TrEMBL record:
One of its GO terms (biological process) is phosphorelay signal transduction system. Signal peptide: none annotated. This is Response regulatory domain-containing protein. Residues 1-51 form the Response regulatory domain. It comes from Pseudoalteromonas translucida KMM 520. InterPro entries: CheY-like_superfamily (IPR011006), Sig_transdc_resp-reg_receiver (IPR001789).
């Protein structure tokens, strides 16, 4: 993504109520495997983490 990464985009979508947790399912697809990466995805508002 040219301007935002997935974490930033998800955070904005959730914060601005553009995509609700109930109405829009966001999945993190990443090569990162650390617990910190998984936590960051959850904190951003992603519903599922897959690596």
């Amino acid at each position: 993504m040219p301007r935002l990464n997935g974490l930033e985009a998800t955070h904005i979508l959730r914060k601005e109520n553009i995509c609700s947790m109930a109405g829009t399912f966001i999945v993190a697809l990443t090569a990162n495997t650390s617990a910190a990466d998984k936590y960051a995805c959850k904190e951003a508002g992603m519903n599922l983490f897959r690596n």
